[in-house]
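for ur thesis appendix - Cyanate hydratase. copy paste whatever u need, i formatted it the way the template wanted (i think)
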Amino acid sequence: MEGGGGERAAGVVRRLMAAKAESRKSFSEIGEEAGLTNVYVAQLLRRQAQLKPETAPALRAAVPGLTDDLVALMMEPPFRSYHPDIVHEPAIYRLNEAVMHFGESIKEIINEEFGDGIMSAIDFYCSVDKVQGADGKDRVVVTFDGKYLPYSEQRSDHMMSRLTRKTS
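the 3d part is after this line
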């Protein structure tokens, strides 16, 4: 079983991401071909989810660069990690857990789809919906809908405080 973090884990993730890059496919394209969500594909390739044996053939077909040893490592239970400084109220704890656990993959997909930037938490919509699952049990749906904000190049001639000082 793979230990928590460390050089070995980072090396495996680098190899998995290299196989993805070789495929020249986005997380979404791989997901469509493999019958998985794009976030789950990213989770698998970042070693934050365990590849199930029945899913391996479809993923290998979508990402031909996945070697036997990489697939074997992906089938081991991963060391899932996120920032440990969390709030202890159960609902907030679980929401933080979900955001922290999937955050790195979501960030990579945002960068892949939009470029270098972030989702606004100001021009932002969030909804919590109750739906009934296929098994008849209640399900919680949390939707984050935020405006994309690209990072700015920090040009001195665009910095108003400097422009104001020069004209004074």
